[in-house]
Amino acid sequence: MTTSSSPISVAIVEDDEACMDRFESAIQASSDLLLVGSFADGRSALTWLQGHQPDVLLCDLGLPDLPGLAVISYCAQRCPKTAVMVITLYEDEQHVVRSLEAGAAGYLLKDSLHGEICDRIRELHAGGSPITPNIARLVLKRFRPKVDKPAFSPVQGLTHLTPKELIVLTRIAQGFSYAEIGGLEGVSVNTVHTHIKHIYEKLSVRSRSEAVFEASQMGLLDIVPRRG
């Protein structure tokens, strides 16, 4: 966390190179902002976040290996000094609401101008929740009291999972076998079984189908491309 005289430290998780360049350029051109990390996938970001807490984390939703929701939830729970802002092309209610429920405090569209990018980062760091007006209307509509509809929190189970367990759960949701997961992650099938056992315990489930159902409730199946 920075002091009032220190620049605001910012990390970015974004797989689109052109978008990454735009955001990096905007941050680096501002003397009160400091770029401390840039990551093109969720795995690298989670590994880095285990030892760092930037003031602000900008995170895309459509990452190549993990859903952005997993990174956002992990950061919100394990990095209390970090404020998270989504950077995305999605303007629909589902993505907005799930991002906020996962722990994001701001929602910024990727086509924002350089000046707006920096202003929103400053606003977020100051304790605000920068969200464009049209998206704010969606949020207000979604959270108006409803007598017959309970509150839905799709990412509750992500809180206690490790980065490796998040990756394995995502692979399960994508339809990969245990052997295929082992090959993709460079570990033995026994190690995959161990991760899955821990996932089952933490999610209070007893089967692959139940784990996949929980992944669906967390939003993993809506954002991560499914196999086939």
UniProtKB/TrEMBL annotation:
Q: Which GO terms describe its molecular function?
A: DNA binding
One record GO biological process: phosphorelay signal transduction system
**Which residue range or ranges hold the Response regulatory domain?**
9-125
Q: Which SMART domains match?
A: HTH_LUXR, REC
Q: Does the keyword DNA-binding apply?
A: yes
- State a single Pfam family of this protein: GerE
Give every HTH luxR-type domain span. Answer: 154-219
The PTM 4-aspartylphosphate maps to 60
Query: Which controlled-vocabulary keywords does the entry list?
Result: DNA-binding, Phosphoprotein, Transcription, Transcription regulation
What name does this protein carry?
DNA-binding response regulator
Q: Which organism is it from?
A: Hydrogenophaga crassostreae
